[in-house]
Amino acid sequence: MRSWLINVGCRHEDGWVEIVVLLVAESPRTGAFRKQLDKLRNTYSRFASRATIFIAAFRQGEGPIRSDLPFVVANNGSAVADAYGVRDDFNILIIGKDGNVDYQTRKVLPAARISDVIQNSFVVQHEVRR
Question: Lowest CB count within 10 Å: 48, 69, 75, 128, which one?
Answer without folding.
Answer: 128
